[in-house]
Specification:
Blueprint: E1 2-6, H1 10-21, E2 25-29, H2 33-40, H3 51-60, E3 64-67, H4 70-76, E4 79-82, H5 97-109, E5 114-118, H6 126-141, E6 147-151, H7 161-166, E7 171-174, H8 178-188, E8 198-201, H9 203-234, H10 238-246, H11 267-280, H12 286-298, H13 301-309, E9 321-325, H14 340-350, E10 354-358, H15 363-370, E11 376-378, E12 391-394, H16 406-412, E13 417-420, H17 427-432, E14 436-438
Parallel strand pairs: 1-2, 1-4, 2-3, 4-5, 5-6, 7-8, 9-10, 9-12, 10-11, 12-13, 13-14
Helix pairs in contact: 1-3, 5-6, 9-11, 9-12, 11-12
Uridine-5'-diphosphate-glucuronic acid binds at residues 121, 154-158, 214, 217, 221, 255-257, 259, 262-264, 266-267, 329-330.
Length: 444
Amino acid sequence: MKISIFGTGYVGLVSGACLADVGHNVLCMDVDAQKIDRLNQGELPIWEPGLDTLVARNVEEGRLSFSSDVEHAVQHADIQFIAVGTPPDEDGSADLKYVIAVAESIARHMDRYKVIINKSTVPVGTADKVQKAVEQILENRNAKIYFDIVSNPEFLKEGAAIADFLKPDRIIVGTGSPRAQALMKELYEPFNRNHERTQFMDVRSAELTKYAANAMLATKISFMNELANLAERLGADIEEVRKGISSDPRIGFHFNYPGCGYGGSCFPKDVQALERTAAQIGYDAQLLKAVEAVNNRQKTILFSKLAKHFGDAPDSLAGKTIAVWGLAFKPNTDDMREAPSRVLIEALWEAGAKVQAFDPVAMNEARRIYGMRQDFHLAEDKYSALNYADALVICTEWQQFRAPDFDEIATRMPSKLIIDGRNLFQPDRLKTLGWTYVSIGREI
Ligand SMILES: NC(=O)C1=CN([C@@H]2O[C@H](COP(=O)(O)OP(=O)(O)OC[C@H]3O[C@@H](n4cnc5c(N)ncnc54)[C@H](O)[C@@H]3O)[C@@H](O)[C@H]2O)C=CC1
Ligand SMILES: O=C(O)[C@H]1O[C@H](OP(=O)(O)OP(=O)(O)OC[C@H]2O[C@@H](n3ccc(=O)[nH]c3=O)[C@H](O)[C@@H]2O)[C@H](O)[C@@H](O)[C@@H]1O
């Protein structure tokens, strides 16, 4: 089938490459002409494992192409995906201007039936707004063209995006139109060979399902972080508690890891947006507010633990050099949006400390965000980040941080102080080796 996708970010590009890989003919369109130029030269705008080869193969085999020409993208296919950003507005609600802009562009250029599929994460009721925006333009054009609006939220995770898209737990499709339903069934047919993964429902339920999933996952994390903070004050070990509760299948082992707070471009904004949706209809979403508040506090915990170690006086960190391992908001991505590392680093600068950081892939992103600064050194590798440092803080659980050479660390950083935001090591072992090891939910 022919497909056009508006937006070549994480969702648009991964969806485009995966849909092409199963045999569809996909045109990815973006208003960012530079991005499209880079894609046409074989360069990827994002770092996502496996995406470069997937894109290259499908481009070479003629199933995937890129364009910044709106009219061309509208003409290319009857299936039109919207996969643009929905960033938070000033009050935390989702800003729909990019979604509406795409809908309007489609309406301006369409000359036959289209199914307009929204893949961006949008509040309940957005499909109605998209419908009205398209109708208005068609009316202005005096064009009588039939179209359908479908909600098809995306559940992929950065760092595992291709596997998530190709083997989804479920495909949610919200539509009331039999014609659109038949097209969506055909489109996702290759993903349903073994068992039917597509769940059809009404549009509003599909829109809410996306926020429900992210809010539920964020709630699990904030719950564990709250419990971790309790555990360390009660002399318990959150890692024992986590394993203890996870073996109950009603609770499960997934997404129960305490840490230095959830980041990324989605959980923080989506919990906030759902809270705003609730407020707009006069409902006080107390649990969602608590999930967000707990997370905001958790993101400051590494700095607090560090400051506490150095005496908690206002100037206790001034002049210190702090090594930071991990800048991305999670492993296997270079994305630093809402990353806990940023809250730590900015607080360290505020306190007069110098930061020496290393991340396996997010160094360029860090350079782009912070530029050149006297108090920010991006190290060649994880060990050189430690030279002359007063402490090491771990923000992201990259695989290569899990079993470091502790002798090498001690040689470069004689202070032997580690503040671990991801609970990578056994406290007892490090204590025996003479380390001061402060982690999450295990001791104060
Ligand atoms: N990043 C993720 O892992 C996931 C994101 N989502 C949701 O998907 C949506 C997109 O997210 P990302 O891909 O991360 O965004 P992104 O910010 O990485 O990419 C959005 C792209 O849309 C382009 N764009 C903006 N206006 C446009 C227009 N009028 N026509 C064509 N292109 C346009 C931008 O230039 C940009 O390249 C958001 O609603 C997000 O919440 C959903 C699941 C996973
Ligand atoms: O809507 C979205 O954009 C996506 O948001 C999340 O995906 P993502 O943000 O890429 O990454 P996650 O693996 O969910 O991690 C989010 C944050 O939670 C943290 N986390 C995760 C799991 C855990 O147990 N503990 C924990 O602190 C991670 O470190 C990270 O900062 C969801 O997992 C995806 O299903 C969803 O499609």
